[in-house]
From TrEMBL:
Protein's name in the database: Archaeal ATPase
Annotated source species: Alysiella crassa
Record PANTHER family: AAA+ ATPASE DOMAIN-CONTAINING PROTEIN, ATPASE
Origin superkingdom: Bacteria
InterPro entries linked to this entry: AAA_14 (IPR041682), DUF4143 (IPR025420), P-loop_NTPase (IPR027417)
Annotated transmembrane regions: none
Parts forming coiled coils: none
């Protein structure tokens, strides 16, 4: 519970901090505030959501809005009843047309308040760092009244533009080492990433979900960070981590996934039950963040490239799978409306020792799905194969993702 004066002070203090130039995110042009719809932007902590809101405010209007970030010490005691005080503040400023609420998911019942403001014809934009909380609450109280977008850390294009680098193989190697968190790239201190993962682990997961076995959660995080691109099952993780139940491991994985720390990639199968029965591949949100958690993994450049390819695809598509049939594997199956449209293999450098494996896995997937074109993404090789009327394009990462933000 707060005083009205405390909420006012937070609003005024935060409004002063909104000024100042920043690198324009490529998502900015894709954001539209529509009447009667809440615009919801979710993403991992420190990915730039607050900055994106600032840029959106600059783009939309400067004097007809209210901005409030709920994830600040001044508002830690904000309760649902305090929205009545916020309403009084809004009523005292009749020019306000648009409400920007940053990290609003920390207030229980926030979706009821947002629904009420939409009914009063306010435009509403909200952000949050937990996909699970947002999706669950949006699904109950804001069904049909919201448009959702996801903001990730800097893409390769944004990384190059932010640091003034040319898009080439050297820039890719730097990207794989440093990752894409804006504040880290600006200051270059690993302590920033260490503080970030601790913040996510404790505030977004352990405290929020009341997890008592902190040790097992930390061990799981360390294991996942060191096994990017590998297949995992909850059953095997249970044995390795010495956790009491498979259900607990699945719960921990879900928390990490919903906090945008990881994503689990299922095997492609036309049956959902078959998908669930098979191991999933693990991908970590950011190579820089992964590096500070698991330094020993930092030299596995092929895995780091595969991780970057996954997130490059994830920015564009939500239906992603891996292929594994006939003892052949293909790293990524990209689907649209449940239909496979693109097949991608990832290899740091094709050579005499690995080309048969990479080629044959891709060809088997192409035959399986009836596609005539596939891609092998490498660090810096560009070439082409034509086999039985099927074309395999060998392209550098910087070329494949050099025009995508």
């Amino acid at each position: 519970m707060l005083l009205k004066s405390e909420i006012k002070q937070a609003i005024e203090s935060q409004k002063q901090q909104l000024t100042g130039q920043s690198y324009p995110r490529q998502m900015l042009d894709k954001l539209k505030i529509l009447p009667n719809f809440a615009l919801v932007v979710s993403g991992i902590r420190r990915s730039g959501k607050s900055t994106l809101l600032t840029q959106l405010i600059e783009k939309q209007q400067k004097n007809s809005f209210l901005f409030l970030n709920f994830d600040t010490p001044k508002l830690f005691n904000f309760e649902f009843s305090d929205f009545a005080l916020l309403d009084e503040i809004i009523a005292e400023n009749p020019y306000i047309q648009t409400l920007y609420f940053d990290e609003i998911q920390v207030v229980e019942g926030w979706e009821i308040y947002v629904r009420g403001k939409l009914d009063q014809n306010f435009q509403v934009v909200v952000t949050g760092s937990n996909a699970s909380l947002l999706s669950r609450e949006l699904g109950t109280k804001l069904t049909g009244r919201h448009i959702s977008k996801e903001l990730f850390v800097f893409s390769f294009v944004e990384f190059c533009e932010f640091l003034g680098k040319d898009k080439n193989a050297e820039a890719v190697e730097h990207y794989l080492e440093q990752g894409g968190f804006p504040q880290y790239l600006q200051l270059g201190e690993d302590e920033i990433l260490n503080a970030l993962i601790n913040d996510i682990l404790y505030r977004d997961i352990i405290v929020r979900f009341g997890i008592r076995d902190e040790r097992s959660m930390k061990r799981l995080l360390l294991f996942l960070a060191g096994n990017v691109g590998n297949l995992i099952t909850a059953g095997k993780l249970k044995q390795s981590l010495e956790v009491k139940s498979t259900a607990t491991v699945q719960e921990y994985l879900s928390h990490l996934e919903q906090a945008y720390v990881i994503q689990l990639l299922p095997k492609f199968a036309y049956s959902y039950k078959v998908q669930l029965a098979n191991p999933r591949k693990i991908y970590f949100i950011d190579n820089g963040l992964q590096r500070v958690i698991s330094p020993s993994f930092s030299q596995d450049l092929g895995r780091k490239l595969e991780n970057a390819v996954f997130w490059g695809l994830r920015r564009q598509f939500t239906e992603l799978y891996y292929y594994n049939e006939n003892h052949k594997e293909c790293d990524f199956v990209v689907c649209q409306n449940s239909t496979p449209v693109k097949l991608i293999q990832v290899c740091w450098q094709l050579n005499a020792e690995n080309i048969a494996r990479e080629r044959d896995g891709l060809l088997d997937a192409m035959n399986f799905f009836g596609l005539t074109q596939g891609w092998i993404i490498t660090l810096n090789q560009e070439d082409k194969l034509i086999i039985d009327g099927k074309t395999i394009e060998i392209v550098p990462f910087w070329q494949m993702f050099g025009g995508i933000g």
